[in-house]
């Protein structure tokens, strides 16, 4: 089936009609605009394509035997260590040539004794979605899946639960900030069997780590939201199929200079966070036809973060793959591979200028044509972002979706088995994962909602969490991650409980915790963010601490924020956060509430 045919039935007859019944409907949606922050972007004064020297636009990679793309000899100077590992051995060969089966037979002692196999375990296996936890869980791996749009089934959930159950206390699962599953405790000898098991239930972990395209994000309410602009599922599924070549491996895009992210926007709520994606598809009409305006270059990294910028391009809704392919190939061909902190796509855009970057994309498009953007997209900038937690009516009569809060995204095998049962018993056997590390159960009959809410599991995964708990996000932290400086998940929960005992807030406040400057928990978008570091406490002892970020926003008025206060010892955070909530977010000290009574 062609991409056009596969998407045609999902296109809205009119993007305006899609919101015609909404009390939130804008009189006329204004263009969605983003601006880079932190390090200044040269894109504002973009040189013309002709101003870039021709030699700079020469592709730096070439295709070799076996279909692999390799860095040309002339560009192999001043490379970062990861690029040297890629040159030492093709990472995808572990999958395409069955190398994982032989590697899985070797004991860790033998693997560590050889430079090449040690690099396989610590670096190249990330192309298969496997991350060795050398520091925290030697010999065990985190496995990251591909789950386009965050949609999964009860069967898939049971399979993953069965995998981690066998690992006992070493096994668990996390919902990630890209609508995805990560499972923990995996041992290398089990990997070939697990990969086959994933395939049998329609899952893959391929190309989910290192210099690859991350999970395509879409609306968690796609297809069930009465107020949506467009159902994002067919688009994210199509994109994922292209990215992994239907789970067989897309060798054309497995040697990028750095990781690369994308999303498709389906609602005015911008649940997908387009401003921090390398490529974001923004719904837009042009000449009466539905399609997407494009944003490019959004990212978060240790030294710099920047919001996505308009590419001044529009693509029809029934033909979205060519531009994704063109952007990826431009990044692959032209991106630098030296300082790892300067290899995300925005650095390339800054170097070339937006117009020259756009020209490189256009020349890689079919027929060499990339349409200019529609004058307006369909996002209402005055839209009030809706809360999907709790019980909400679907567009399908008689059905509701129920959003469940998963505290900091952590689940055990028993939790996953129960969620699968609830999805089957009360819904349609489907679950949706969200970028806030929560889960939505769709297609629940209205006459079953009360019984669902009474299920014991919902005492742990509440449909109605507290105002501070509902927006809590946390990365893995140093429990499992070797890069994390501090523990995050348990601390985030405890600090939040302690703060709740001190103050009462009038509205939800989104608090994000990340264990290191890589900011996997995206603290720059949070109302209040905590980035792990070390400092000396009042006694002069080195202790875990956090830089505090304040003022990030998501939704149509998105904003990435910077540091508010540096290096606060974690042991001192509770009063600092409580005071901050009073000063900035209208919180009331609980003592004052008691006095007023």
UniProtKB/TrEMBL annotation:
Annotated InterPro entries: NIR_SIR_4Fe-4S, NiRdtase/SiRdtase_haem-b_fer, Nit/Sulf_reduc_fer-like_dom_sf, NO2/SO3_Rdtase_4Fe4S_dom, NO2/SO3_Rdtase_4Fe4S_sf, NO2/SO3_Rdtase_FeS/sirohaem_BS
Gene of this entry: NiR
Any coiled-coil regions, as ranges: none
UniProt-listed PANTHER family: FERREDOXIN--NITRITE REDUCTASE, CHLOROPLASTIC
Class of enzymatic activity (EC top level): oxidoreductase
GO molecular function, one term: 4 iron, 4 sulfur cluster binding
EC number: 1.7.7.1
Taxonomic lineage from the root: Eukaryota, Viridiplantae, Streptophyta, Embryophyta, Tracheophyta
Name of the protein described by the UniProt record: Ferredoxin--nitrite reductase, chloroplastic
Polar residues: compositionally biased ranges: 1-11
Co-factor(s): siroheme; [4Fe-4S] cluster
UniProt record, GO biological process: nitrate assimilation
Keywords of this entry: 4Fe-4S, Heme, Iron, Iron-sulfur, Metal-binding, Nitrate assimilation, Oxidoreductase
Residue numbers spanned by region Disordered: 1-59
Transmembrane recorded as keyword: no
Family the entry assigns: Belongs to the nitrite and sulfite reductase 4Fe-4S domain family.
Keyword match Disulfide bond: no
Catalysis performed (reactions): 6 oxidized [2Fe-2S]-[ferredoxin] + NH4(+) + 2 H2O = nitrite + 6 reduced [2Fe-2S]-[ferredoxin] + 8 H(+)
Domain Nitrite/Sulfite reductase ferredoxin-like, chain residue ranges per copy: 132-200, 392-456
Pathway(s): Nitrogen metabolism; nitrate reduction (assimilation)
């Amino acid at each position: 089936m062609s991409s056009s045919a596969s998407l045609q039935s999902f296109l809205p007859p009119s993007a305006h009609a899609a919101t015609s019944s909404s009390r939130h409907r804008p009189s006329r949606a204004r263009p969605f605009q983003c601006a880079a922050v932190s390090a200044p972007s040269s894109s504002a004064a973009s040189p013309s394509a002709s101003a870039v020297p021709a030699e700079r636009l020469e592709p730096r990679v070439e295709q070799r035997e076996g279909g692999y793309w390799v860095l040309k000899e002339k560009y192999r100077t001043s490379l970062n260590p990861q690029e040297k590992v890629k040159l030492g051995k093709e990472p995808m060969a572990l999958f395409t040539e069955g190398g994982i089966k032989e590697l899985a037979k070797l004991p860790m002692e033998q693997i560590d004794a050889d430079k090449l196999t040690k690099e396989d375990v610590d670096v190249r296996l990330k192309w298969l979605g496997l991350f060795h936890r050398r520091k925290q869980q030697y010999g065990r791996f985190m496995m990251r899946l591909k789950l386009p749009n965050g949609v999964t089934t009860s069967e898939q959930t049971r399979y993953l639960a069965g995998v981690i159950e066998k690992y006992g206390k070493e096994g668990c699962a996390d919902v990630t900030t890209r609508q995805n599953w990560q499972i923990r405790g995996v041992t290398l000898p089990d990997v070939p069997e697990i990969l086959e098991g994933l395939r049998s239930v329609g899952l893959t972990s391929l190309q989910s780590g290192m210099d690859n395209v991350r999970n395509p994000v879409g609306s968690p309410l796609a297809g069930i939201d009465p107020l949506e602009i467009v159902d994002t599922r067919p688009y994210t599924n199509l994109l994922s199929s292209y990215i992994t070549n239907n789970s067989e491996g897309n060798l054309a895009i497995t040697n990028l200079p750095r990781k690369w992210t994308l999303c498709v926007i389906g609602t005015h709520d911008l649940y997908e966070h387009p401003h921090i994606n390398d490529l974001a598809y923004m719904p837009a009409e042009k000449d009466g036809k539905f399609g997407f305006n494009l944003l490019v270059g959004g990212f978060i990294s240790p030294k710099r973060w920047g919001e996505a910028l308009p590419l001044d391009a529009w693509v029809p809704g029934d033909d979205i793959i060519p531009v994704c392919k063109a952007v990826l190939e431009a990044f692959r061909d032209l991106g630098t591979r030296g300082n790892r902190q300067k290899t995300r796509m925005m650095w390339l855009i800054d170097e070339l200028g937006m117009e020259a970057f756009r020209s490189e994309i256009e020349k890689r498009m079919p027929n060499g044509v990339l349409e200019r953007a529609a004058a307006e997209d369909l996002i209402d900038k005055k839209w009030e972002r809706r809360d999907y937690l709790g019980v909400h009516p679907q567009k399908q009569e008689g059905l509701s979706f129920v959003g469940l809060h998963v505290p900091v995204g952590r689940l055990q095998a028993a939790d996953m088995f129960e969620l699968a049962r609830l999805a089957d018993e009360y819904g349609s056997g489907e679950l949706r994962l969200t970028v806030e590390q929560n889960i939505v159960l769709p297609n629940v009959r209205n006459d079953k909602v009360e019984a669902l809410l009474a299920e014991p599991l919902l005492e742990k995964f509440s449909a109605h969490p507290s105002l501070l708990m509902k927006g809590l996000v946390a990365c893995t932290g140093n429990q499992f991650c070797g890069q994390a400086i501090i523990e995050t998940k348990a601390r985030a929960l405890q600090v939040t409980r302690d703060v709740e005992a001190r103050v009462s807030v009038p509205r939800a406040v989104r608090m994000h915790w990340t264990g290191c400057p890589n900011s996997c928990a995206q603290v720059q978008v949070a109302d209040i963010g905590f980035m792990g570091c070390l400092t000396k406490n009042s006694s002069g002892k080195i202790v875990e601490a956090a830089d505090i970020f304040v003022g990030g926003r998501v939704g149509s008025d998105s904003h990435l924020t910077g540091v508010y206060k540096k290096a606060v010892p974690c042991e001192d955070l509770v009063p600092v956060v409580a005071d901050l909530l009073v000063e900035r977010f209208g919180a009331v000290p609980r003592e004052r509430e008691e006095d007023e009574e």
